[in-house]
């Protein structure tokens, strides 16, 4: 860090990534939210209108209250320079100016950030520390090979239940570094269908590998972490049988039941009565005594529990577990895990940021 004068700071960092990748990380709201949260903040939320004269906003969610940063883009030169105003509580709500320059370096890309018009030495010190910590997070983000792709926005009703939560949950349980990328909910183009042939989400990219369907993604992640899938043949086999049971036996019954609940077609028609009986008598009634005797499905917590708990969580949303206390307690245990709480909060914040 160099200080040009009492109101200006300069922070430099070389990051092992291309100029193109790092430039996009400043203007893509999903990426910006993942690294622009230094210090004790949880994941930020961000909105970006990436054009000269366009506005941006970053809400850093500190424990006591969110801290709002906002401004307007003054200059955007692709892969060379960004310039924007920066206003927040930390600038005493005065307009300051940030210029970010991107230079190709032997070890990647050098970022040179100049922050001008800061109101005094305290603000200079605070922003030096903040930008330095943010660059650490940007470097971490650039090093992450796993990319989770989900919609940029969905209506309120499915929020918290969109299938990317299963992948987020698994990534958090395993502690695997990843970043989130958005695709449009309303305009699903040919590239989307090349990754997910049914136009759904999520999919996961791991280097040159692109994987769709949550079961396949979780199995892939399980191969990378014993926190998700035991290495021993017996534990692995038991986990996989319960993974497929959750997807094929239980969700096959719970999903049409839930869709009828969503649509309001739960009024005692023959079709409804058949689906309700099938779910409860043929599935939940058999799960109930099993879950009353064990904490998790196959020994330690695994990808099988991620899927089964998420399947049952949707049933419980419509009070379908009222007569199955062991199933309900199982869902409560699973959703009390820190990894689920973070995955759920991140998904809710992700979709809310696009409202």
TrEMBL record:
SUPFAM superfamilies: Bet v1-like (SSF55961), GST C-terminal domain-like (SSF47616), Thioredoxin-like (SSF52833). It comes from Pseudoduganella aquatica. Residues 151-229 form the GST N-terminal domain. Pfam families: AHSA1, GST_C, GST_N. This is GST N-terminal domain-containing protein. PROSITE patterns: GST_NTER. Belongs to the GST superfamily.
């Amino acid at each position: 860090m160099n200080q040009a004068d009492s109101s200006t700071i300069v922070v430099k960092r070389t990051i092992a990534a291309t100029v193109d990748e790092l430039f996009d990380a400043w203007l893509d709201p999903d990426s910006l939210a993942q690294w622009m949260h230094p210090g004790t903040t949880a994941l930020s939320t961000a909105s970006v209108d990436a054009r000269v004269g366009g506005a941006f906003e970053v809400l850093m969610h500190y424990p006591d209250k969110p801290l709002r940063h906002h401004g307007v883009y003054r200059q955007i030169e692709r892969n060379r320079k960004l310039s924007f105003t920066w206003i927040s509580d930390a600038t005493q709500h005065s307009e300051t100016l940030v210029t970010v320059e991107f230079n190709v370096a032997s070890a990647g890309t050098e970022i040179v950030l100049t922050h001008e018009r800061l109101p005094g030495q305290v603000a200079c010190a605070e922003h030096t520390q903040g930008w330095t910590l943010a660059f650490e997070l940007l470097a971490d983000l650039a090093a992450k090979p796993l990319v989770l792709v989900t919609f940029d926005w969905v209506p309120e009703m499915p929020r918290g239940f969109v299938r990317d939560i299963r992948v987020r949950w698994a990534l958090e349980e395993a502690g695997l570094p990843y970043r989130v990328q958005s695709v449009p909910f309303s305009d699903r183009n040919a590239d989307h269908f090349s990754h997910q042939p049914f136009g759904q989400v999520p999919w996961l990219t791991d280097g040159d590998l692109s994987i769709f369907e949550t079961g396949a993604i979780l199995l892939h992640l399980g191969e990378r972490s014993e926190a998700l899938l035991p290495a021993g043949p017996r534990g692995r086999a038991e986990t996989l049988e319960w993974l497929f049971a959750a997807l094929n036996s239980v969700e096959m019954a719970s999903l049409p039941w839930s869709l009828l609940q969503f649509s309001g077609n739960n009024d005692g028609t023959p079709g409804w009565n058949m689906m309700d009986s099938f779910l409860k008598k043929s599935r939940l009634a058999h799960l109930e005594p099993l879950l009353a005797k064990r904490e998790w499905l196959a020994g330690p917590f695994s990808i099988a529990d991620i899927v089964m708990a998420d399947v049952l969580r949707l049933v419980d949303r419509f009070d379908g577990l009222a007569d199955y206390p062991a199933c309900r307690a199982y869902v409560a245990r699973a959703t009390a895990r820190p990894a689920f709480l973070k995955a759920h909060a991140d998904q809710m914040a992700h979709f809310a940021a696009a409202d």
